[in-house]
Amino acid sequence: MTRLRDFVLPLLVVLTAATACTTGTAESGTAPGTIRVPQDEATIGSAVDRARPGDVVLVSPGVYRESVRIRTDHVTLRGTDRNGVVIDGEGRRRHGVVVTAPAVAVENLTVRDHLLNGVLFTGATRDGSEPDVRGNDGYQRLDPEKSPPLQGFRVRYVTAANNGLYGIYAFNARQGTIEHNYASGSSDSGIYVGQCKPCHILVADNVAEYNAVGYEGTNAGTGLWVLRNRFTHNRVGLTVNSDYLEAFRPQENSVIAGNLVADNAEAQTPHQADGGFGIGIGIGGGQRNTVVRNLVRGHPRAGLMLAATEDIPAAGNTIEANVFTGNAADLANVATARAPSRDNCLRHNTFTTTYPPDLPVDRCLREGAELPAAPAPRTPEAPAGIPFRDVPLPPPQPQLPDTAPTPVEGPSAVPPLDRVGLPDPTLLAENSRSRP
Length: 436
Prior knowledge:
The chain is mainly beta.
């Protein structure tokens, strides 16, 4: 597989590739073209408002103090320099980029210092206009019948730093790709996928560190692949869970493979609302997920923890061929009597300890069989954390390869699962603040 560090040159040929058959601007009644910021429009917002389906909004380096809303389908928003094009919320604006139209791509730029989200893709809107997602007016259950899921999106080579809720947030959205991004300093999770079934979303080759949670998938599954990511130095590495406050419960049928999940007990991170800390992979009421060939190490509570969400059990999960090392408990089950973990398959893992000690880890349980459980360990207690804007900014990140924009037509190609191997401890380390 090609390393990201091979793509470090700025996008010098994008202008030619994107505009070979156009005049360089997008006018009514003309073929799709390119709108340059600030050459053709002073702000990104005015450029995307002007854009028509198929247009590219190409942004030159600069700090853009605005929130960007994309309402037109099949638009590509692309920076010419990932580290030099910055959409800055200044700790005052709620969102960096909000996409409520299908088949939109956001690429090769940085979003930082927003009160809620860095980049948001959603079909959940109020009256077909304003986004209606978690974080606007607290927790509320949304109706996907009134707000159908957004169909098609892509976010890649984006740096989402120091955003107050989520870095990259796909909610009530399907047929998408989240790849080659970096997320840090999020008070909830760096990358979040929620309320989609089926999802048909690929989350691959990302780095999420120094967040409350690296990756979170809530009520999301059936065609959801989380592959080859680096989730390190968060409070919690990765969670898949069910939630009564969102549609499509229970969470089910995600594939989590080939990820590095390490050292997720970082105090210098924003505090997480649920108080989670020191856990690598958490499955809270998640069902029929496949967790294979992940390297999970360095967690003072548990490498992988099974738990219930109210009366929704962790059931039917396959946890196989993972390597656990340096965790207080490598495999743990803390489900309650109200919703005991059942029908799970734990086998062929490399591990040392389990919690409770009699956890069966060498076979798939027969239908209806329950795993023995114990109360959740509370040591160490979660430290207080720091404000999200105080998390140090990431190192410079690699650029999008020099390619012409392509239409968004569902997720990128998903590799066969048997070709996703156990990751090396140095996976994507060149893009991390915490290199080995």
